[in-house]
Amino acid sequence: MDNIWFNIGLLLEYPIVNLKIIIDGVMIGALFALAAYGLALVWGVMNVKNLAQGDFVIAGGYVSWTLAQMGVYPLLGVPLAFVIMWGLGWVIYKTVITRVIERDLFTSLLATFGLAIMMAQIMNLIFGSDTQSVDMHWPTWRLGELGIIELPAAKVVGVVMAAILAIGVVLFMKKSRMGQAIRATAQDSRAARVLGIDTEKVYAFTFALNAAICGAAGAIIVMIWVIQPFYGITYSVRAFVIVTAAGLGNLPGVIAAGLGIGAAEQYGAHIFGIGYQQAIAVVLLLVVLFYRLMRQRRLRQVLQ
Amino acid sequence: MSMRKLALYGALLLLTVAAPFLFPAYQTQLATLWLMIIVALTWDMTGGQMGYNSLGNIFFYGTGMYVGAVITITLYFPLAEYTDASRSETFTFTPEMYFTGMVLGTLGAGLFCALSAYAIGPLFFGLRGPYFAIGTLGLAIAAGEIVSNIDILGGGQGISMPVYGGDFEVFKKIIYYVFAAMGVVLIVFLSWFYQTRFGKAINAIRDDEEKAEAMGIHTLRYKLVTWAISAFFVGMAGSISAFQLIHFEPLETAYQTINLGIFMVVCVLLGGKGTLWGPVIGAILFHVFKEVTWNYLLGWQWVALGALIVVIVVFFQDGLMGWLRHRKPEWFGIRVESREARASA
């Protein structure tokens, strides 16, 4: 208890520490927002809640890590992970997801949970349970008094790449024919079918795109943090927190919630200790769920 | 009840009692089998019969473990000294202390879990469908992460339970019979429970909650009581597991979200949701499959397990009982009119 008060006191006494935490949180949050955007896409278009989301992220990280071991320049790992995870996503769609779309929601939840276990265990068998990362050998800038704000170049580049990817996906969804078809299917899949859109193709494309976005996010994560086969579930939980908080089809909301949860986690880890970081992500999920519930209750009372 | 049914149940009961003597090498396996049956049956109470698919019932299992351990230890020794990682002194339990602790700890664990289910229920039962599943999964993960940071509960190292002083063979038989008795009581209780008006009411909630409410059923109260009963049994099973395993730790043993936490759902789906015997049969099939194949898969067993979940969920979701009901409806007292009969009518 004492060191919690001490940590809070530290934040109030040295405002610069807040800045450091927020910058760290925003950098992490940008990558959470990417995974969450993919989840919202799949959720909105085909009503599948993908619990294997985090494992796609980790798988993308391992793709990039393997390529880096083979001598590929790490930054090239990001587009390559995008392409390879696209293929994996397509295969998973054709083998499993296509069979659960029409079923009730618990089915898709459980099927993707099974997929998550499978992917985590396969990665564990192939890569071992040690944490891995790709060292970029780039400088770290120090700002503020005593250089308290560390700004590694790799993190800055990672955030910029995440932003480029997000902008690319948004432009694609807005401008291209396929993007328009995806949005039409999300609005009303039956009407889309009547108008001649091959919804099966749209579903496959959407799921593959989601896996690719996650894979690219994972390739960025492996450059700036570490990955481990069993870290997937926490990325899934964070993606769920963000989407539940922001709602579907609300991109600014997803970005805001992603950056918010990143900062909140960093604050929590600073105040309660690093051991609570995972717990904080999950408790935030419960808080968001119950907050939504309360809001709906109020709505219900108004209707009565 | 007809004579044939009575004879069948009698034979099953006899087999249950005789099993540890018939298969002495598999006593621990059989005890674990009963544990699987208990958690599958209790999962089906809310998942199959009431339509609330929880992914976090393992929360009550882990909590039962910790409550049982804490009660057993604090009856005789200060908890902080017992769980101190650097302790040098040993704490010995006489058989009398051991069994008092086991009985009181297990009952306490059951009651604590039932009360906590009743307390957190109003929050969780507002969540519908997949949100309920995600919310309860979050509860189980959060509990494990938080408990592993609490030093007085042993932190990430977990707790080492007192050891039974006597013969190890006797210990294995005790654990088996406790689990078996709990399982038999649960089956008898549920076969009565599902016949009552209460059982019909929770089925009505599953079929259409809004209509059930309109019929005058106080749905929240029914949901809370059902969840509390299910938590009572899971909590007791968790406490007995703590005694069986002797040492447990928070993330992999107590709040084991991806092992037992998902096994119970798979058992129920395999056997057939919303039936009394489906979860029992599913648990037996799943456990036998798991134990037979486990050692031959050379590290790939977890991958195979994930694949099995996907296959069951995607291709075989009605389970064995659902399949049987489809093929042999007359066994379930369902009369199907043939086409000719309908045409002539």
UniProtKB/TrEMBL annotation, chain A:
GO terms for molecular function: transmembrane transporter activity. The chain crosses the membrane at residues 21-46, 72-93, 105-127, 147-173, 202-227, 239-262, 274-294. It is found in: Cell membrane. Keywords: Amino-acid transport, Cell membrane, Membrane, Transmembrane, Transmembrane helix, Transport. It is a multi-pass membrane protein. InterPro entries: ABC_transp_permease (IPR001851), BCAA_transport_permease (IPR052157). It comes from the Bacteria. GO terms for cellular component: plasma membrane. One of its GO terms (biological process) is amino acid transport. PANTHER family: AMINO ACID ABC TRANSPORTER PERMEASE PROTEIN, BRANCHED-CHAIN AMINO ACID TRANSPORT SYSTEM PERMEASE PROTEIN LIVH. This is Branched-chain amino acid transport system permease protein. It comes from Meinhardsimonia xiamenensis.
UniProtKB/TrEMBL annotation, chain B:
The keyword rRNA-binding does not apply. The chain crosses the membrane at residues 28-46, 58-77, 97-120, 132-154, 174-194, 224-246, 258-289, 296-316. InterPro entries: ABC_transp_permease, LivM-like. One of its GO terms (molecular function) is branched-chain amino acid transmembrane transporter activity. This is Branched-chain amino acid transport system permease protein. Keywords: Cell membrane, Membrane, Transmembrane, Transmembrane helix. It comes from the Bacteria. The lineage of its organism: Bacteria, Pseudomonadati, Pseudomonadota, Alphaproteobacteria, Rhodobacterales. Pfam families: BPD_transp_2 (PF02653).
